[in-house]
Amino acid sequence: TTLIEDGRTGLHSQDTSELIEQLIRLYRAPSLRRDLSIAGREEAAKRYDWSIIHDRLEGLYQQAENHSSTL
Q1: Cα-based distances in Å from 44 to 10, 23, 26, 49
Q2: What is the pTM of this model?
Q3: 69 DSSP assignment
């Protein structure tokens, strides 16, 4: 999955002209900038908080250990 969800946590651009359009859109819409910023921060905190990363890594290590013990 990707961190950027178009229109909710960020804006996707396919090429340079679309990027320019998106930047102008952001320049003209302070509320959009604010909303994207808030949603992006919340999503990043939810996915990349150290306690969450720790739990995921610990689970992966346990899976690897369980797998190696069956070999």
Answers
A1: 12, 22, 20, 8
A2: 0.67
A3: H
Check: CB of residue 29 under 8 Å from CB of residue 18. no
Tell me, what's the pLDDT at 4?
86
Answer for the pair 35, 10: CB distance below 8 angstroms, yes or no: no
- Cα 12 to chain centroid distance, Å, stands at 13
Please list the alpha-helical segments (H only) found in 1-71: 16-28, 30-48, 50-69
Q: Annotate 37-69 with b (16+ C-beta within 10 A) or e (fewer).
A: eeebeebeeeeeeeeeeeeeeeeeeeeeeeeee
Which residues lie across from 10 on neighbouring strands? Answer: 6
* Contact between residue 44 and residue 8 where contact means Cβ atoms under 8 Å apart: no
Residue whose pair of structure tokens reads 């952001």 in the numeric block: 26
